[in-house]
């Protein structure tokens, strides 16, 4: 007597079928979040999603190359498929430069600003950057100074004096 036999075969959609033994990870499957310089070590958020399915680090893929950094610049990470996934994708990620925070203090002997008065200026910049100063009256041309300046005697009552602190661009700051 013949016995009936049954076989079960899993069916894969054509989009997921790879005859060579795995689903390919492509550059379009890998996204990396944006980072800005903070002075601390940073780890980029790397997302790998194939055909709408989020993959799991160390199960579906591994990372190699530069996976953390502190300074502004460009870095390279490599995503390698494992398990049911195959392929290697190299992606560039970056930490962007930032504008430094600068705190300016301007004082006069009387606490008031008037024509002929000396204005003392100090400033601190994030990252111990060197600072240069200028001031301008109204929409006038900036005048460079170091440490202090005298409000010109011909300055009109109610004039706006703007103190400008500038830093040089560095590896991490704009």
Strand content: 35-45%
Oligomer: single chain
Radius of gyration: 30 Å
Category by helix and strand content = mainly beta
Indicate the mean pLDDT: 90
- Biggest β-sheet: strands ordered side by side in the sheet: 3-9-7-6
Strands, helices and their partners?
Blueprint: E1 23-24, E2 30-32, E3 35-36, E4 46-50, E5 53-54, E6 61-65, E7 73-81, E8 85-86, E9 88-96, E10 102-107, E11 118-125, E12 131-137, E13 143-145, E14 148-150, E15 161-167
Quick rundown:
The chain is mostly beta strands and 174 residues long.
Could you please describe the fold and organization of this structure?
The protein is mostly beta strands and 174 residues long. The chain contains no helices and 15 strands. It has a four-stranded mixed sheet with strand order 3-9-7-6, with no helix packed on it. Strands 2-4-5 form a three-stranded antiparallel sheet, with no helix packed on it. The mean pLDDT is 90.
Q: Characteristics of this structure?
A:
174 residues, mainly beta, four-stranded mixed sheet, three-stranded antiparallel sheet, 0% helix, rod-shaped
